[in-house]
Amino acid sequence: MKIAVLSGKGGTGKTLVSVNLASVSEGSCYIDCDVEEPNGHLFFKPEKIEQEAITVKIPVVDQDRCTGCRACVDFCAFNALAYIKDQLLVFEEICHSCGGCVLVCPEDALSEKDKAIGSIERGISEDVFVHTGIMNTGEVSGIPIVDRLLEEIALESERDIFIDGPPGTACIVMETIKGADFCLLVAEPTLFGAHNLQMVHELVALMEKPFGVILNKCQEGENLSEIYAMEHGIPIIGRIPFDEKLGLINSNGEIVSRVDEGYEQLFASLLKATRKAAAV
Amino acid sequence: MKIAIPVDSNIDEVKVNDSFGRAPYYLIHDTETKEDLFVFNTAARSAGGAGIRAAQLVVDQKPDVFLAPRMGQNAADVIKTAHIDIYKTEGSSVKQNIERYLAGELSPLDDIHAGLHGH
Description:
The complex is a heterodimer.
Chain A: E1 2-6, H1 14-24, E2 29-32, H2 40-44, E3 47-61, H3 71-75, E4 81-84, E5 87-90, H4 100-104, E6 110-125, E7 128-135, H5 143-153, E8 161-164, H6 171-177, E9 182-187, H7 191-206, E10 211-218, H8 224-231, E11 236-241, H9 244-251, H10 256-259, H11 261-279
Parallel strand pairs in A: 1-8, 1-9, 2-7, 2-8, 9-10, 10-11
Antiparallel strand pairs in A: 3-6, 4-5, 6-7
Chain B: E1 2-7, E2 25-30, E3 36-40, H1 50-59, E4 65-68, H2 73-81, E5 85-88, H3 94-102
Parallel strand pairs in B: 1-4, 4-5
Antiparallel strand pairs in B: 1-2, 2-3
């Protein structure tokens, strides 16, 4: 079972949900695809870490072969190339690594080199495999890191997999949920929270993924995300209370289901409900 | 000499545009013939790298100098590679900035910003 945990914005509880579901599920695998700010490792504190560098291809110019035809400059949709004073300039941080310039060059003046954009760290926390995608600051896209993270889990059939997604609904979120069997949307009770739920709901519906919602930070009074979920027939997997104790444990970097019996039971029941919904 | 300036339109009484890469037009003023040429900035609506493409467009017109209120690092790199000087405009009047540049009253633009990527 591969579960992607998503939300329309940061801070709704994606990491709380994915870390704790992975903790209560026996021998699972937690994958942090929130590569711009991965934080699941702060809770798991994984050991025996192995690191793999993630690289992309960017163009290198042989100025002697370049005739200044500008086929590459005209082709580049991201404006990463300029031809000035008889030399081709490559703006590496603008390049999206499509490889098109190399293909269109009639003089074979362009080749490719590897450029590191981030890394993947793999470690173990108790019986949980913890895989963390880390993007270097300033890179244009973390998608190659997500692709590599998901490539390896595609082969994993023994362990349940919990994917901590990037916030929002951008390309990288779509990439993250491509291989998921089920999407778990985490939502806050506010108007802002309901709007963010709507964004992700529209995305998962568009991608034809089965999904359900976990209502986080629940308290007395109106829950606009709950109303949205009921109006749109989104299965409600469960609720997590707005609780000072939970906030305190979480802010100390501890995994609440590992240190508090009540929360261990809550997340065990959320896991059960998620499995049931995903099996339909 | 030819002077290039990012401007907000291609009609009379044009003003200096605040953005380099995303200005709608560039004015190329020829001080000898007194002619004005407007270059439409096809890069203005680019998703990214507008400054690079825009600088390429204007450099191809072979100006001797750029006048602009500010400029991002990538555009400045293109223009410096072309060995063209960049001076900082003051106020939005195109006419006054050209006159002041010719009178030696404008300073070189040296506070190049890191770029306003994503804006």
